[in-house]
Every structure is written in C-alpha cells, then in structure tokens.
Amino acid sequence: MLTRTRAVPASLLLPRLWLALAALIFVSLTLAAHAQERTVRIGYQKYGTLVLLKGRGSLEPKLKALGYRVQWSEFPSGPPLMEALNAGAVDFGSAGETPPIFAQAASDVLAYVAHEPAAPKGEAILVPKSSAVQSVADLRGKKVALNKGSNVHFLLVRAIEAAGLTLADITPVYLAPADARAAFERGAVDAWVIWDPYFAAAEAGGNARVLVDGTGLVPNHQFYLSSKSFAAENGPALDAIVAAVAEVDAWAKDNTDAVAKELSPSVGIPAPILSIALKRQTYGIRPLDEAVTKEQQRIADTFHGLKLVPKTVDIAGAVRKPGS
C-alpha cells in the first residue's frame, strides 16, 4: 500500500526559508566582523600599571570600539618581554631603561611610545644587615647578584663608577629576582641589586640593608614600547592604550593602598609591603621629551662603551611622535 507524503503548504514554507536565510546572513556577518577585528597583544609583568589595566578591564571597550580585541601575556621581567616584542610575539609592553637598549642592539624593531617620570628610589643595592660592606667601594672583589639587562644593571654600573671601581673589580652573578633573593639570603652572594616590589619585600624580610638607591645616580624611568610597524599601522589603538594607562595612573597615584590590595594576590607580596613600593613609584604617562631621550641615549652609550651591547643604538630614531 502506497503512502502519500503531504506537501508543506507554501504559507508555512516561506517563513521557514526566510528564517533560515536570516540566520545564514547573521552568521556570515558575525564571521566577517570577527575576521575584520584585529588583535592587540599586550605583554605585562606582575607589578605595574599594565597589570592594573588588565585587572580593571577598562581597555577592552576602548579598543573594541576601534575594531580590536586584547590578548594579554605575562612575563617575569623586562628582558624576556622585549625579546617577545622583537620576535613579533607581542605588540605593546613596558620595561625599565636597560631592557629596551639590549632589544635595540639585537633588532631595529622597537619603538618608544611613552614613559613614566623618574623613580630613582625604586631600586637599590642591598647587602645583609650583618655585612662588613659599608660603601659601594667595599664591593671590590665581592659577588653581586642582578638580573642581566634589567634596569638595575645600569644602577650597578653607575654606582661602581661613582665609587671609583669598574665591573672588573666585582663578580656579577646574573640571576632572576627569585633566584637572586635565595642566593642573597643563604649568603651565596655579597650584594643584590634589585627593583621594587622585590626591593620592598627584601627590606621587610629584616635581613637586608640599603647600601645605596638610585638617587643621584640613575633616573629609573619606566617605558611603554611597541614595534615600529605596529605603531605605524595602528596609531589610534596605541593612543587609546596610552589614554587608558593615563586613567589608571591618575587613580593609582592617590589610591596606593587600594592598588596594593589589588596587586597583592598576583604578585604574591603582602599589601602593606606593596604600599611601600607603590609610594616610591611615579605616575603620569607622557611622551618622551628631549631630556628623557638624551638620558636613555647616555645609558645606551654607556653599555656600548662597556661592550655589554654589541653596537651603538639610536634612541631618538626609535621614539614615536604623538599622533603618528
């Protein structure tokens, strides 16, 4: 016995076709929008304005309005972050004075976007409280731990020069902060050159004494950096990031205790200790002026003269002009 299939009335078929077509158009438009959306890859460290910016979530809507999404990547310090920028793995990040210079010596990729004012009290040379070392000159023949290529590398250079020594008069021991602290605490090194908040944590630990900080020796600027190609092709996005950092800076400047509480879980340092570090920090992101550019060039020339970087680097040629 044959069974007849009932035809679907046209009055029901057309609405279904329209719904299917509308769904197809919606999916197509959504895929096209995602295809056109670009990504800004931001490298950040556990401590600093960028990690605050990430936590507050205020950058994402600013960049979404410009057709960008944000991808965040954490780095343990400035040198590996700069290596990632050179390799094209990140588009924007921050570091102290020395890491960008080493990065420029390796590749002509980097662009200086902005900086924070000098904060010389935010880094120091530490010795154990019981140490017989009373001045930088007493470091002759001693083992000094530091993170190679970090901002404190220049502090060590300037401090020993001011004391009439050279790098040949000491034994540098290149260690990351966590390893350097362990070596310092067990007496494997005689001194430790370090920046905040590790500096503040070491002070709070009770066994560290400040031999000298950066006052009168180094400016200790924090720089915001991108690649030249990204800066040339994504000016509005960079301007939006700088504006978002400025907003966080303005809030953080007057709310150091709140900032300390916010950062404490990610940094792994108690909030009261972070508050000490944050009060030594400076705020107010701004473009590089001639004075800051010359100071950074002086640092670069010093490292080249010491043969710590293989060639001269041009700081002014790597500075992004506002709005470009």
From TrEMBL:
Swiss-Prot/TrEMBL keywords: Signal, Transport
InterPro entries: ABC_SsuA_sub-bd, Solute-binding_3/MltF_N
Domain Solute-binding protein family 3/N-terminal: 39-266
Gene Ontology MF, one: ATPase-coupled transmembrane transporter activity
Any single GO CC term annotated in Swiss-Prot or TrEMBL for this entry: membrane
Task of the protein: Part of a binding-protein-dependent transport system for aliphatic sulfonates. Putative binding protein.
Family the entry assigns: Belongs to the bacterial solute-binding protein SsuA/TauA family.
PANTHER family, A to Z: ALIPHATIC SULFONATES-BINDING PROTEIN-RELATED
Name of the protein described by the UniProt record: Putative aliphatic sulfonates-binding protein
